[in-house]
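## tool: complex_structure
## caller: assistant
## args:
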Amino acid sequence: MRHIISILMENEAGALSRVAGLFSARGYNIESLTVAPTEDATLSRMTIVTTGSNEIIEQITKQLNKLIDVIKLQDLTDGDHIERELMLVKVRAATGEQREEMKRLADIFRGRIIDVADRTYTIELTGPGSKLDAFIDALESGAILETVRTGASGIGRGDRMLKI
Amino acid sequence: MAELELTGAEIVIRCLHAEGVKYVFGYPGGAVLNIYDEIYKQQEFEHVLVRHEQAAVHAADAYARATGKVGVALVTSGPGATNAVTGIATAYMDSIPLVVISGQVPTAAIGQDAFQEVDTVGITRPCVKHNFLVKDVKDIAPTIKKAFYIAASGRPGPVLVDIPKDITQHSCVFQYPETISMRSYNPTSKGHAGQIKRAVQMLLEAKRPVIYTGGGVILGDASAQLTEFCRELGYPVTSTLMGLGGYKANDPLFLGMLGMHGTYEANMAMQHCDVLISVGARFDDRVIGNPKHFAKEARRIIHIDIDPSSISKRVKVDVPIVGDVRQVLEELNRLLKGGSERPDAQALKAWWAQIELWRAQDCLKYDRSASVIKPQYVVEKLYEVTRGDAFVTSDVGQHQMWAAQYYKFDQPRRWINSGGLGTMGVGLPYAMGVQLAYPDAMVACVTGEGSIQMNIQELSTCKEYKLPLKIILLNNGYLGMVRQWQEFFYEERYAESYVASLPDFAKLAEAYGHVGMRIEKPEEVEPALRRAFTEYKDQLVFMNFITDPRENVYPMIPAGKGLSEMILV
Ligand SMILES: Cc1cc2nc3c(=O)[nH]c(=O)nc-3n(C[C@H](O)[C@H](O)[C@H](O)COP(=O)(O)OP(=O)(O)OC[C@H]3O[C@@H](n4cnc5c(N)ncnc54)[C@H](O)[C@@H]3O)c2cc1C
Ligand SMILES: Cc1ncc(C[n+]2csc(CCOP(=O)(O)OP(=O)(O)O)c2C)c(N)n1
Ligand SMILES: [Mg+2]
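## result:
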């Protein structure tokens, strides 16, 4: 099963490598990992997307909690939550027809064209991973020149919060 | 008036004083010279100069195992730190509280491939409870305070503090924090009341109970509470390698060690019980064998452990109790004594009758009439001659298992060995750490001719600090444990397990300034041991017992098999 785990940790040098090292040393999967400081600069907020049986996920959360720098964590998948990912896609847009088509597709997916050049467009798209996948699928494979995705960030819905 | 400023090096020393440290085991080098200069000027603790950094960490680790206090080691950057890694990993696997201070190249040189630079924090990360790189002299005191606190609290473990050389030169006002609180680290020690009640109920319903104890009992100083608990219930008790001494080995309730080389009765009881309570033991693969086989018999499991990640890791647990063994056992004892319900006497009687049948198998028997020295016999005689009152350290291999099986430990912190990492070479430095902690105690190191050579240079340290250890070398001429696996599982192809060209150990010991003996006949064993512990009481005696090269450790559960698939003698 896919799980999305949110972690609040001390914003210390090396904190990220402790988490990454834990996953590799214990053979856990990481689908994606995002991290950045929060509004309180002493704290980092990390989102990890991983897969595993219930037993493995239980071990992952216990082992993460055991890291001294980890203050709190939450398995977002346990309740209502929102997940977003940002993708930048550079596409071929050389002919008028291609430019037209890209503009149309970007609109359908509520993407924005954020860079326009002679032969390319760069489109920004946010949403759940499945929406980004769908956008990629909708493009002809030859049209894609480059993609970059941030990996998911997540947050609980309503009063569900992860804070100290 | 401005407050007095101290250099980082002085601060390090003051912190160690504030922690009440008695011994620092270490080895100097460029990056820690400022710290060594301050060591030179102080008298509060003794610095023990080992001959290899690995031994410094092992000795500090043994000091911690024997006393319950945090062990301290000090090493230089680069090779000093890499030499220390095996010691750190060994302590980590057995949850031993250590603070290791390592020197680092100056801050400005970090990342420049500087002389004797390694990424010590990076290298040690997976084998420490936590580590720090100190980047400001002001952080030294709070960091060392945290290091001691983290090492000793919760599930103990080693903590490394890496200090660049320039930081030890900078100065600031010194103030050692009196208390420490960390928002990200708050170990639980009190068990959940509801779970404890459920545990009592489950224990009282048991028809075939087993109490399975481990290193947590030793680490948590819960031997007295455990004894009360077991006696109150009258249930059979078994222990892992790491828990030996937590419950008296000579007590009738005790079934001996369980696991790969555990007794027949302990393993059969473990496999066939209906209620199992694990007290600070972590269902290691050398203990329950194959978890699938273990799960074949239905049983309900209660697990007390301070580390939530030890619970339901390899085996699904019905009643998890996260907490300190001592506190939880006290609570269990209170409820058991206060309640009116008693264990089912009839069921218990039948269960003991079954256990006695298993016990009658006498799985630790061996040929006592042999004309060669049997290693088991040496350990039995060691037990007799020391009247069970010695601290026994061991290395890793067959001799380790014989020491565990035949020395009947009846006190905690007396059996000092590497269980989790299984590090050959620990025996001698372990004995040093123990002897320094308890100068008047009898300290025996049971070792093999393979293992002892992994840290033999420490014989020199023993001379310098006048440590009257007794080294019991069970010399079978083989990497015996390897040879045994090759005999059983590789059709006797003894690839590289025979060690040719062994030194004359007695002469070697003499060269280091100690007493050496070579013992070849069974009838010489006891007199030699007696002489060592009386006539040579104050000297290190290296006893080279030439033992049966073909002897094997029984019982044995082959790796990956189940608890009831034992190979018996
Ligand atoms: C050659 C060789 C053969 C071996 N054969 C065997 C064998 O036959 N049988 C055997 O048992 N072992 C054997 N071992 C050792 C084995 O590898 C493990 O090290 C050992 O079984 C682990 O013991 P343990 O479960 O008691 O855990 P430990 O490693 O001692 O861990 C202690 C547990 O207690 C917890 N704990 C710590 N402090 C507290 C506290 N205050 N309160 C509550 N919980 C606490 C910890 O979180 C941890 O889960 C062998 C090792 C070697 C090298
Ligand atoms: C540092 C290290 N290297 C290798 C091993 C693998 N190993 C385990 S037991 C053993 C043999 C030990 O030989 P010896 O010290 O003579 O003891 P014996 O088994 O003969 O009693 C070896 C090589 C180990 N445990 N540690
Ligand atoms: Mg040997």
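## assistant note: The interface with chain A takes residues 121-122, 125-126, 129-130, 133, 150, 182-185, 307-309, 312-313, 316 of chain B (CB under 8 Å). Residues B 94-95, 155, 214-216, 219-220, 240-243, 257-262, 280-282, 284, 286-287, 304-307, 310, 324-325, 396, 400-401, 419-420, 422, 481 surround flavin-adenine dinucleotide (ligand 1) (CB under 6 Å). Handing back to user.
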